[in-house]
Description:
Elements: E1 9-12, H1 23-32, E2 38-42, H2 49-63, E3 67-71, H3 76-79, H4 82-89, E4 93-96, H5 101-108, H6 112-122, E5 126-130, H7 132-135, E6 140-144, E7 157-160, E8 168-172, H8 180-189, E9 194-198, E10 202-206, E11 211-216, E12 219-224, E13 230-231, E14 244-245, E15 248-253, E16 257-259, E17 264-266
Parallel strand pairs: 1-5, 2-3, 2-4, 4-5, 8-9
Antiparallel strand pairs: 1-10, 6-7, 9-12, 10-11, 11-16, 12-15, 13-14, 16-17
Helix pairs in contact: 4-6
Amino acid sequence: MEKKAKGSLIIIGGAEDKSDKSVILKEVVNAAGGEDSRIVILSTATENPSVVGNEYINVFKRIGVKNVEHLNIDTREEANNDENIKKIENSTCVFFTGGDQLRITSILGGAKVYNSLKEAYLNGVLIVGTSAGASVMSNTMIVDGNNNEPARKCTLKMAPGLGLLEDCIIDQHFDQRGRIGRLLCGVAENPYMLGIGIDEDTAILVPPDGVFRVIGSNAVTVIDGTTIKSSNVSELKPDEILAINNVTLHVLPAGYGYNMKTRTVVR
């Protein structure tokens, strides 16, 4: 029987406030243990690790975290390094920065650090991801697709993610980049998968029971494909527009939540 995760996830739509009230990042600190948090900034996704790593270190220190360090894993060799594994094991929170989600999965996937990360999550460590770091949380992730376009089959590319959150597809920078079309296409292709589109400066906190709550200044869009009566996604030619019938859609700001098991909105 598969072990049930004791850890929580905070999945951020990107561009979270780092300089003013920092509501989401303060929530990260609270969930990671407050002033006693041991936060590891994992910058595998970005090609500017020093800049991004130092930025987050400064932000978390401003909030009051004493123990925060930057870990850049840039190669498969580094992903199998025992010292890097120890840093994951000794943390109370691992924070994935933005960048390119395929860098995360291609560098970490199947490596010792990945196994250590999953074990840490199972044992209660908080895992956080923003932007590209948000997309990789699910078992299937979007890696490419047109913004501000109607849903078309040929524009969506998906790949396996880290698999920390099952049976869903995460999309980020959602409303700001007009990504509802591509998420609808992803749900049409996999109706059992819950589509979760997270706006900028907005996040979901997902505890072990799967009832997430919304944090931040914008909204989260939830697309439930189990109610779909029909779609033409399997019949589409590459540039045809998606037809989809009876899909369920929710838009949830802070103060709302969602039960991923029963697929119901909560307040």
